[in-house]
Amino acid sequence: MSDGLGTTLVVILGVIAVVGVVLVVGTVYLLRRYRMPIQGVAAAITSLVYVVSPVDAVPEFPLGPVGLVDDVAVILGALFYLRRLVDSRRAVPRGGEPRMLDARPRGRGIGRR
Questions:
Q1: Residue among 23, 34, 44, 39 nearest 87 (CA)
Q2: Staple 58 to which of 37, 70, 73, 81, CB 3.0 to 4.6 Å?
Q3: Any idea of the CA torsion for 53, 57, 58, 62, to the nearest 10 degrees?
Q4: Which has the higher per-residue pLDDT, 33 or 84?
Q5: Angle at CA 60, nearest 5°, toward 55 and 62?
Q6: Residue 83 to residues 9, 20, 62, 72, 106: CA-CA distances in angstroms?
Q7: C-alpha to C-alpha distance for 32 and 23, rounded to whole angstroms
Q8: How far is 40 from 10, CA to CA, in rounded Å?
Q9: What pLDDT digit, counting tens, does each position of 45-64 carry?
Q10: Contact at 8 Å (CB) between 44 and 86?
């Protein structure tokens, strides 16, 4: 292995490790802060296990950076799902009953005086 290739691999592994730590810390924060239901916990853990596991839909070894596409897709899918769960949790105050959104138009509309 050449010196340049070894350095590149170390940098790539370092970036992957940092991204993994950020994902774990962010997931733990969301789970604790918004009291995520079991679906949120399962989505977060499953996505992290998929990214770390050596079994991929698109392998990184023969395809290089193109192989990271499935990992990025799994991470983004989990993030969008967790975002929707967080938004739904924000709509419910800690007391229990969801807030009703006001459907009445605000301000002056067409034909109003």
A1: 34
A2: 70
A3: 70
A4: 84
A5: 110
A6: 33, 18, 33, 16, 28
A7: 14
A8: 32
A9: 888 888 888 787 877 777 77
A10: no
The answer to whether the beta carbons of residues 68 and 60 sit under 8 Å apart is: yes
Residue with tokens 């990025």: 72
What tokens appear for 2 in the block? 């050449």
Distances (CA, A) of 80 to 2, 40, 60, 95, 111: 40, 11, 24, 26, 40
Three-class DSSP labels, 6-65: HHHHHHHHHHHHHHHHHHHHHHHHHHHHCCCCHHHHHHHHHHHHHHHCCCCCCCHHHHHH
* One-letter amino acid for residue 39 of the chain: Q
∠24-29-30 over CA atoms, to 5°? 100
| Residue 64 one-letter amino acid | G
Nearest to 47 by CA among 65, 62, 31: 31
Q: What is the pTM of this model?
A: 0.58
